[in-house]
Amino acid sequence: MSLKIRLSRGGSKKRPFYSVVVADARMPRDGRFIEKLGTYNPLLAKDDENRIKIDTDRAKHWLERGAQPTERVARFLGTAGLMNWKHGENPNKGKPGKKAQERAEERAERARAAEEAANAPAEEAAEETAE
User: Which interval of the chain is the signal sequence (predicted)?
Assistant: First the structure.
């Protein structure tokens, strides 16, 4: 059984409140879970101590049993000192898609052509004055 430590959403519309839970990876986000480890309230200020509450002993227990935290929960556990969390680096994520790259190339070609056209009369005028 593949275990995940993840967030389970609660709260009303536009007022999110999350529980940090250990669940089977096959269960839905807000579905059945094995154990509740803590809470996360994103509406509170970032420096508020009640924003993230996690039972570190139980979280450590589940990490030793092989539970994999999600990216957000891994960040929380990293601040709690239970694991090393490093910001993921995906250099391809920031690149535009094929169509956007093609449009950018076309724009650059048009700009070069316009620049050459603007410089061409100036060069001709310079040649005429030199004669």
Answer: none
pLDDT on residue 130: 59
**C-alpha distance from residue 108 to each of 89, 112, 114, 115, 117 (Å):** 29, 6, 10, 10, 14
- Which residue is listed with tokens 């070609």? 109
Q: DSSP labels for 76-112?
A: HHHHHTSS-------TTTTS--HHHHHHHHHHHHHHH
pLDDT in tens, 41-53: 999 999 999 999 9
The C-alpha atoms of residue 129 and residue 124 are separated, in whole angstroms, by 9
What's the pLDDT score for residue 77?
93
Per-residue exposure over 50-65, b if at least 16 CB sit within 10 Å of its own CB, e if not: eebebeeebbeebbee
